[in-house]
Amino acid sequence: MSIKCKTAAFLMAIMTMGAGASVLPISVNAASASYSATSISPTAKSNYTSTDSSITISWDKVSGATGYYIYRWSKNAPAWVRIGTASYLSSSYTDKRVSAGSSYKYYVVACRVTGNKRILSGRSNEISASTLPSKPQVSDCLSDNNYITLYWSRVNSTGYEVSYKQGSGAWKVAGKTNSADATSFDIKGLTSETMYSVRVRAISKDADGNTVYSDYSDVKDVKTAPDFAYRRSSQYLIDRLNSAKLDPGQNTYDEVNRQGKEPYKSVQTISDADLATIKRFVDAHFTADMTAGEFLDYTVQWLNKNVAYADGVHGPQYSEIWGRSHVDNCLNYKVGQCIQYNSTICAIMRYLGYDARVIQGWRGNSLDDKWQHFWCEVTINGTNYVMDSYNYGTDGDWYFVCATYAETAPYSYNSHYIMDQKLMAPFKGYITKMLTLK
Prior knowledge:
Layout: H1 3-16, E1 43-44, E2 49-50, E3 55-60, E4 67-74, E5 77-87, E6 92-95, E7 103-114, E8 117-123, E9 127-130, E10 138-143, E11 147-152, E12 159-166, E13 172-177, E14 184-188, E15 195-205, E16 211-213, E17 220-223, H2 235-242, E18 252-257, E19 264-269, H3 272-285, H4 292-306, E20 308-309, H5 326-333, E21 335-336, H6 338-352, E22 356-366, E23 369-380, E24 383-388, E25 400-403, E26 416-419, E27 422-423
Parallel strand pairs: 18-22, 20-21
Antiparallel strand pairs: 1-3, 2-3, 3-6, 4-5, 4-7, 7-8, 7-9, 10-11, 11-14, 12-13, 12-15, 15-16, 15-17, 18-19, 22-23, 22-26, 23-24, 24-25, 26-27
Helix pairs in contact: 2-4, 3-5, 4-6, 5-6
């Protein structure tokens, strides 16, 4: 190398070692006699330690060195940048300016101060290192009688692992997700009315492709819901549901307002989130020995027994649930009024492929003594049937599973179904004035 080139290289090296982070613009020729005291480059060790907010690297000390400079490269800053210094007594460095779940590369340069000069060694070998993922934060936890759904905040990772335990028992892995975008998991096959503890941790890959884990989230304790005594309805009602021709996978239904002279129809879309909730409910409750009719009979009764009436007395205030969808309220939070639980029945029936809709009408003792009500109506082989869960404990223990309007008549506790300004099935033996509104 010419004297001119050696001088330029030396000046560049001095500039590189100035204060603050800087990009190393040129490799130092470690074989040059001018660098004899530090001509041996450090050897960076491939093993390292890390947390979600730091990486610690280490190296073998170089005899005669008075300090070390540490350089880093990452995908977010694709250039070698000097990030710190270490004294001659040190053989490690902790980088705290890193992001969770990220990979980096490092090398080390030894230096020796002679007078006013700083002399650099060559670069060490490069090593790759990664931070651990951040600890996920549990955002919600919902339960049914035989499963728990855990929700968490997304972190930079490749997936998640969910575990649970019953009481003081041992932790068990419920399962893993392979999606970085997953933020929920269903823990199935649980016992009703039982206390469980649940937690989640993030999964990632380190620089060598090995699986690494974040710290566990804070533990969440949750009790599964009580089961209920399913009372099978009459077989002829279930047979009606089983006789329907199904077109599964529907994601819309009609909501028909029949409170006036002319009906008004609006199309309601079942969101992807609600479809996922419905699928979870179906998977958990629709057993292999059930027909579709039996499952719907079970579902109407499940809603009747498990959904708290949102009136501020039997359940939360209605204003507290208004911001959530009907399906979310009933199947996840187990709260609602007639529009929530009967819209949920309709959404489930549409998912299964039934020709179902929600009716906005009235219930009452006569045309001039009535109150608003929503129910589900399904058409099977040309006949309209009522599917109405109502709510256990607020207005009698009643519900209807695939009953004609005429078949609802003997049950005085249900009052009348009223729509299109007509009493759909006056009570047998009940005297009322049949009025036609003008």
